[in-house]
Amino acid sequence: MNPILKSILSPKFVFATIRVMTPILYPAIGVAITALAGSINIALEGIMLMSAFTGVMVSAYTGNLLISLIAGVAAGVGMGAILGYFHLKLKADIIIAAIALNMFASGITIFLLYLFAHDKGTSSSLKSLVFPSFQIPILKDIPILGPMLSGHNILTYFVFVAVIAFYYLIYKTPLGLRIRAVGQNPDAAKSVGINVDRIRFYSLLLSGFFGSFGGLYLAMGYVSWFSRDMTAGRGFIAIAASSLGNNLPLGTFLGSLLFGLVNAFAIFIAPLKIPSEFIQSIPYVTTVIVLAIYSINKSRKVKKEIE
Amino acid sequence: MEKFIVKYFNLIRTIIAVLIGVVISILIIFIISKNPGYSLKTFFLGPLLTKGRFGDFIEQASPIILCGLAIAIPFQAEQFNIGAEGALFIGAAVGTAFAVSTHMPTILHITSVLLVAGITGAIWGFIPGFLKAKWKTDELVISLMMNYVAYFLGLYLINYYFRDKSAGFLVSYQLPKTAWLAQFIPGMRIHVGVIISFVIAILTYYFLYHTTKGYEIRVTGINKNFAKFGGINVFMVIVISQVIGGFLAGLGGMTEVMGLHRRFNWQMSPGYGWDGVVVAIIGRNNPIFIIFAALFLSYLRTGGQVLNLLSDIPSEMVIAIKSIIILLITAEAFLEKFKYRITIREAKRREALDESDS
């Protein structure tokens, strides 16, 4: 059998898919929550960068994983709060404010990286920590399934918890109900006494919360350093992933899984000597195509309903 | 005074936002630099102190102006397009490929290369524009993705087919002399492309505010349904605004290659497209204001580069400052209380005037 086909059909491929899906799924959950509340957050790119940077720096200077986790999450939630403040309180356009925040995160992290690590590229001169990976007892011994699902980073396991938490939040809590109500019809929500701005603010904080894990995973799990603009568009792919899944929990998960698959595929066919630039463009081209197909179907459905 | 403030409130708010950005940069320099006086001087006066740097300051405004227009025209039609960065990159890459592989007399070569780059950029604008107009695909996400596609395809094209292996860097072959835009002031890198960009800005102003198509674009932006009922072909307007935008961005990338580097030397996206978003916002989508906004930004950029070179402050500070300025400018309610107080005072004054008249 062709060695590349063989490697794609091996459990390693599934393992890689889950691994590369993780930093897309976290921000995708963040995007989905805000999209459900009707104020889509496209600043996940910046949120992840800030969290990744903060996590790496704090871990390098304190040597404590828990403190760096808290700091990283705080940075992400803080970014969400800034976006919320500017959008809801100061009436800035949320898209432009988010673009500004993405730029801010890119600039300030490189700026501070230079000040602390004296390097504008990576933080590899600093000794930062990583979140541990571990084997799951019993599961790890099952053939095929074991090497697929066991041995992941703790944050990768946690992303599945995050999806379930997202589901629970949206469908089983009063806040989730309000988020959906505000997104579907803000005026109706207002008429029953829901504070629309406050709910949207909460949704932005939550998106910062979930996004920050994506950033932390990237710099302290996926790799073990911070590098400039290391999110490489994952915050934007997350928007595509969540909109593919209609911003619902299962859909968001499947959307992210698709991008994980494409990315893993790109990694696995690398030995074919197809130029790397070409392979790297695959997920972005896929997003364009899938989003186009998705909206074509949607507009057909709308037409049928009208008829 | 109150009357003046009420009338020019937006302008005043923009200036205040810019001033806040400037103050923050001064503070950062004071905190970080070991020699703040010198750093401040290089940052704020750097672009003016030597002839070459002054030239760079004017020169760098050129692609920013074109990208600003590329963003502003779709913005006027209420279309987001943050794909200027990609259109610029792929336009310059394909244009370079074309320039290197053809031989023509100067004028013809320059025009055809610019056209190729512009049309490539226009395709990059067409895709999100068409998808949006036809099937309501989110143009924001599509144009973002197109940025990455442009980046990787552009690199692929240059690095695999047009790479000058003798150069020692990852750069394309040098453009033939017939495709150069001349630098016409000795000691400065200001080239013909700079003039092109200023002229295009003025033409765009005329197009948007004094032609039917321009009017249609603006009406579509203000109220799509109204435009539809008024008989405007909204589908065409959306597509055309994106196509023109992409064309201008592609042009912006190509003039930079033809006038400044004379070969394609970007291994990283140069960021002019994002600066375009910034100047479109600062200039409130008005081409004339965009010229000034672009000059301001390019002043900061040049100052940042000088700072990077001569002092201990990294130039990325400028990016952070820029984003703070945009945040403040887009914040509609920023300084609103102040405006409210002034408006009331002005109204009272007028009331008093009216009473004394009658």
Structure write-up:
Chain A contains 14 helices and no strands. In chain A, helix 3 runs parallel beside helix 5 (94-117), helix 7 packs antiparallel against helix 10 (196-222) and helix 8 crosses helix 10 (196-222). Chain A has a single domain (3-306), classed as ABC transporter involved in vitamin B12 uptake, BtuC. Helix content of chain A is 75%, strand content 0%. Chain A has helices at 3-8, 11-36, 44-62, 65-89, 94-117, 145-149, 154-172, 174-184, 186-191, 196-222, 234-244, 249-268, 276-280, 282-306. Chain A is an all-alpha fold and 307 residues long. Chain B is mainly α. Chain B has two domains: 1-43 and 316-358, no CATH class; 51-310, ABC transporter involved in vitamin B12 uptake, BtuC. Chain B is 77% helix and 0% strand. Chain B is built from 15 helices and no strands. Chain B has helices spanning 2-7, 9-32, 36-49, 51-76, 84-101, 106-135, 139-161, 192-210, 212-222, 224-229, 234-261, 272-282, 287-310, 317-330, 336-357. The longest helix of chain B is centred in the middle third of the chain and has 30 residues, at 106-135. The mean pLDDT of chain B is 88. Chains A and B meet through helix 5, helix 11, helix 13 and helix 14 of A and helix 6, helix 7, helix 12 and helix 14 of B.
Mean pLDDT of chain A: 90
Distance between the termini of chain A: 52 Å
User: How many domains is the backbone of chain A divided into?
Assistant: 1
What is the third-level CATH name, the topology of the largest domain in chain B? Answer: ABC transporter involved in vitamin B12 uptake, BtuC
Instruction: Could you tell me the CATH topology label of chain A.
Output: ABC transporter involved in vitamin B12 uptake, BtuC
Assigned CATH architecture of the largest domain in chain B: Orthogonal Bundle
Q: Which structural class is indicated by helix and strand composition of chain A?
A: mainly alpha
Number of strands of chain B: 0
**Strand fraction of chain B:** under 5%
The coarse overall form of chain A would be globular
**Mind summarizing the main beta sheet of chain A?**
none
Measured by residues with Cβ under 8 Å of the partner chain's Cβ, the largest interface is:
A-B, 44 and 43 residues
End-to-end distance of chain B: 24 Å
